[in-house]
Specification:
Shape: globular
Strand content: 25-35%
Structural class: alpha+beta
Radius of gyration: 15 Å
CATH architecture: Alpha-Beta Complex
Strand order of the largest sheet: 6-7-8-9-4-3-10
CATH class: Alpha Beta
Helix content: 10-25%
Distance between the termini: 22 Å
CATH superfamily: glutathione-dependent formaldehyde- activating enzyme (gfa)
Amino acid sequence: MEADTPPTPLTGQCNCGHLQYTLARAPMFVHCCHCSWCRRETGSAFALNALIETQHLRVAGGITESMHIPSNSGFGQTVHRCPACRVVLWSHYNAAKEKVAFVRVGTLHQPELCPPDIHIYTNSKLPWVILDPAIPAMEEFYQRSKLWPAESTERYRQCLGR
């Protein structure tokens, strides 16, 4: 997201408006995941997640309800949802734990500002989903070092304290 970095802050909310959040920085990278786990979890054809350091995610209106649920990796994920309407706003996966939030782009007020940087797990993509050939598409996962912009890779490294 170096060339077309969205303006910040980006804002979003749950369905009922009880929880509102702000991303104080642009996301590091945006995944469009086509795995069957993400499809079931979102009730859609894919999940669109904007990855950002949790320290740059600010919540107003209350506290999210967190819950550990299974994931394709076998390690699970911790989802953060509104305690009132139960909409998932973001999750944390095993590799970065609580340090990186995978924000559900559909909960942003302007989701069009966070198009996917990559499509992952396209080996299980629904056949009627047509991908833009200009966006990298991986049959499964990928190596971050090969596809992330240098600035995003550095942000991720610093976030993990490496």
